[in-house]
Each structure stands twice: as structure tokens, then as C-alpha cells.
Specification:
The chain has 200 residues and is an alpha+beta fold. 34% of the residues lie in helices and 8% in strands. It has seven helices and four strands, in the order βαβαβαβαααα.
Length: 200
């Protein structure tokens, strides 16, 4: 997947590790409670989407597996020392739901997210907090975040390799390595407008 649509900035789900949290700081707000309670809505989302879909440059990407269209599953973020044991069952469920392929990324803690996550971790998992933080650091050259392209999504080192091996083993076991090519021959830009009116 190379395109997403998000009509909001901020999120009431409040996942403590969310990499989008620091964007609130651009407005002088906190990446903590403000991110979860002061949510910006992009009022012109429908118009922007219509303009995007109507552009001759846009290539149409995916829908639902139930409709016979290939879809991918994404596991993210994997929290080292806390959630990697869930990878096999998640991939099994994804395969049962009709996914063709799967991908993953590992927790990254940019900017103020690292402080929020550490506070949350010590409150909810005090017995494992140091172990988890040390694993993250071992995958990020001794830091809690590595912004470098190519390393930031998976990390590196022994624990990163272990997570990758687990993921690859079960991705292969559940046949989530298939590739598919979607045809855009039936896409009709003129026919899309009535559907988009539902978003208004």
C-alpha cells in the first residue's frame, strides 16, 4: 500500500507509541493528552479525495478481499520483548481472512513519544520495562529511535533478526508471500462522483 487517507490529526485511541504524536507539537500542543483530546478534522477531505481520484496521474490501489481483490496485512508496530510472540497468530488470522501477503514494522520512538512510552511502560509493565527498553536500544544503535531510512522500520541487530526470522517463517507457513497485479482497466473517473457524494 502506498496511499493512505487520514481525515484527522490526533486520535482518541491514544496508542502510547504512535509515531504521529509529535505532529501536535507543531501547534504548540503536547504529544500526550492534547494528541488524544484535541483532534483536528480536515473538513475538506471529500473534496481533496475527489480531486486526487480525478487526477489523470492517480492509479487506483485496493478494496476488500471478500470482493476478490488481493489485500495485504500489516503488523505494526511490533514491540520488542512485549508483542513479537503474537506474530504467528496474527498472520494465521490474516491468512484466514483472505490476505495475500503481509508486512511488519518495529516500534520506533521519535521525539516526545519516547518519554510518553517510557512512562506508560513503567506504569503498566514495571517488571519488564528495562528489558523492553534495552531491546529497543539494541536495535537502534543504543538509542530509542533511529530515523535513518532503511533501519527505522525494522531496526538491526540480533533481536531485529529474530523478529524477522519469526515473521518470515510464519508468513511462508500461511502462504502470505503472494504477489498480485491489479487491473485498472475498469476504473471510470466519471463514475466516481456519485460515490464520493456519500462522504459529504
Amino acid at each position: 500500500m502506498n496511499t493512505t487517507l487520514n481525515p484527522y490529526r490526533g486520535c482518541e485511541h491514544g496508542c502510547i507509541y504512535c509515531y504521529a504524536r509529535p505532529t501536535h507539537e507543531f501547534f504548540g500542543l503536547s504529544a500526550g493528552l492534547d494528541f488524544e483530546t484535541k483532534i483536528f478534522v480536515k473538513q475538506d477531505t471529500a473534496e481533496l479525495l475527489k480531486a486526487k481520484l480525478g487526477s489523470p496521474k492517480w492509479q487506483p490501489i485496493e478494496t476488500l478481499a471478500q470482493a476478490g481483490i488481493p489485500v495485504n496485512a500489516m503488523i505494526g508496530p511490533v514491540l520488542p520483548g512485549l508483542t513479537e510472540h503474537e506474530i504467528p497468530s496474527i498472520l494465521e488470522s490474516a491468512a484466514q481472512a483472505g490476505a495475500y501477503s503481509a508486512y511488519y514494522n518495529v516500534l520506533r520512538l521519535p521525539h516526545g513519544v519516547k518519554d510518553l512510552f517510557q512512562t506508560w511502560l513503567r506504569e503498566h509493565y514495571p517488571d519488564r520495562a528495562d528489558k523492553i527498553l534495552n531491546r529497543i536500544r539494541s536495535m537502534r544503535d543504543g538509542k530509542l529511535n533511529d530515523p535513518n531510512f532503511g533501519a527505522r522500520m525494522h531496526g538491526k541487530g540480533i533481536y531485529a533478526d529474530q523478529i524477522e526470522q519469526i515473521f518470515n517463517l510464519y508468513r511462508t507457513r500461511y502462504n502470505l508471500t503472494r504477489r498480485s497485479r491489479l487491473s485498472v482497466a475498469a476504473f471510470n473517473r466519471d463514475a466516481m462522483s456519485p460515490q464520493l457524494r456519500l462522504l459529504l
